[in-house]
């Protein structure tokens, strides 16, 4: 995959548009994510050549090391040959964050998959997570039936980190801000999501999808016991430190 566009869509979110061929298998709502294989160092150089098939020599980037990370396809146009991937720029960046932050037009990475489950059909939904889950939640919300009801709960650093969402009329969206919160936002977020889980569990035909930092994942495992396992997903997308 080759970078064809790069945009800072929020203070801590970078969007890369990646172009490549044979993308039709990635164009599915059943699997939201892909594996990105990014160079560990942006200083990698063209180190070797490979035959292009017509007698010419084709330069191939050779990286000293490659890291694999999982990301959500935010948007895809398989016919046009591109995907959009949104990267959270953590304070302590990893290899994928570094790649997104420093990527220039023409830089390359690998992509495999797809993988990662979305939601199952339901009438009522609870979608919750922090900014790492925002691309997936935004994509899921766009695919829901217009008659769907429920709530979206998102924890981000501040108001400037909000992104526009397209959601069914019957769903509400609440944002939780870490900066300036009267109490630790992680505690408030977990408490509010716990209450929302209990409320939705009391009704019929529901599905819960949660993705956040490892501590939130652990804290929410107990209240999620009220939800039948086939009707919920709770995954840790990252670990602090």
Report helical residue fraction. 10-25%
**What is the molecular shape?**
globular
Q: Oligomerization state of this entry?
A: single chain
Tell me, rounded to a whole number, the average pLDDT.
88
Percent of residues in β-strands:
35-45%
The largest pleated sheet is described as: 6 strands, antiparallel
Number of helices: 4
Q: Strand-and-helix sequence, N→C?
A: EEEEEEEHEEHEEHEHE
Radius of gyration: 19 Å
Distance between the termini: 29 Å
Largest beta sheet: strand ordering: 1-2-7-6-3-8
By DSSP, the count of extended strands is 13
Q: Uncertain runs with pLDDT below 50, 5 residues or more?
A: 42-60
Task: Give the structural class.
Answer: alpha/beta
Protein model, in words:
- The chain contains four helices and 13 strands.
- The chain has 241 residues and is α/β, with parallel strands linked by helices.
- Strand 4 (46-51) and strand 5 (57-61) form a beta hairpin.
- It starts with a strand and ends with a strand.
Q: What secondary-structure arrangement, pairings included, does this model have?
A:
Blueprint: E1 2-10, E2 13-19, E3 31-39, E4 46-51, E5 57-61, E6 66-77, E7 82-88, H1 95-102, E8 110-117, E9 124-130, H2 134-143, E10 149-156, E11 170-177, H3 185-201, E12 206-213, H4 214-221, E13 232-238
Parallel strand pairs: 9-10, 9-12, 10-11, 12-13
Antiparallel strand pairs: 1-2, 2-7, 3-6, 3-8, 4-5, 6-7
